[in-house]
Design brief:
InterPro entries: 26kDa_periplasmic_antigen, SIMPL/DUF541. This protein is α+β, with helices and mostly antiparallel strands and about 150 residues long. Helix content is about 35%, strand content about 35%. Strands 1, 2, 3, 4 and 5 form a 5-stranded antiparallel beta sheet that branches. It starts with about 25 loop residues before the first strand and ends with a helix.
Length: about 150
């Protein structure tokens, strides 16, 4: 082990935390449609996406606050009595939408599910001004280290 024989300088440690109430909600969900042909699956998913976008706009969520994935197509299978059974073609698209309307989250979720977003992956409440809060915590930590 190496030791410093003649140390110089001073080390100080300070810690601080800040708290804030959430001011935005982030909803993550998927639209999944299974149909017998790829074109029918794409059509069904696209129709559901249009409906979901309409609900988001009606709820005051701007298009810039919505991240969506491209449509993905896979085959869907199940097993019945040990036999693999073809269900169809599954088309899906994932979304994340942010809203500042915290009092309307329940209504938003109900409406999204009603128009076809049946796979809700998560609802997270967050703070938009994280950068400012972190800067405030750093300032307070430095002040605490100086004491």
């Amino acid at each position: 082990m190496q030791m410093i024989e003649r140390p110089w300088g001073v080390s100080a440690y300070g810690a601080a935390s800040v708290k804030a109430l959430p001011d935005l909600v982030r909803v993550r969900f998927q639209i999944v449609r299974t149909e017998q042909t790829p074109s029918a699956a794409f059509e069904a998913a696209s129709a559901a996406i249009r409906s979901v976008r309409g609900v988001l706009r009606d709820k005051g969520v701007p298009d810039a606050a919505v991240d969506g994935s491209r449509l993905d197509l896979t085959t869907a299978w199940t097993h019945r009595d040990g036999v693999r059974v073809f269900l169809g073609y599954r088309c899906q698209a994932g979304f994340a939408a942010e809203s500042s309307h915290l009092d309307d989250v329940e209504s938003l979720l109900i409406d999204l599910v009603a128009v076809g977003a049946r796979d809700i992956e998560g609802v997270d409440f967050d703070v938009a001004a994280k950068r400012d809060l972190r800067a405030d915590a750093r300032r307070k930590a430095v002040a605490a280290a100086r004491q």
